[in-house]
Amino acid sequence: MKTYHAFFLKNLFTFLIPMLVPILILGTMSTVIIKRYVTEEINHNTTNMLKQTKENIELIFKQLDSLNIHFMGNSIEFANLKSLMLKPSLELDDYKVLATIKNLIDAPAMAMPYIDSVYVYLNNDKNRILSTTSGGLIDLNEFYDKAWFDSYIRHQHSDDLVWTENRTIKKYNFENSAVELISLYRKLSRDQGDGLIVLNIDAKYIENHLSNLSTLQDQTLLILGPNGDVMFKNKKLPYFDHLIFKDLVSDGRPFYETNLNGQPFIVSKLNSDKYGWTYLSIAPKTSLYEVPDGLNLTSQLLLMFSFLFGSGLTYYLTRKNYRDVKTIVTILESAENSKPLPALPSRVKDVYSYIIHSILKNFIEQNYLSIQLSERKYKAQAMELIALQSQLNPHFLYNTLETINWKIASLTGKPGNLNKMVENLADILRYSLEGHNKPVILQKEIAYTLSYIDIQKVRYHDKFDVVWEYEEHVNKYNVPKLILQPLIENCIYHGIKVKEGTYRIKIKIWQTEEMLHLAVIDNGIGIDKERLDQIKYELKQDIGETDHIGLYNTHKRLKLLYGESFGIIIRSKYGWGTAVYLTIPI
Question: pTM of whole model > 0.70?
Answer without folding.
Answer: no
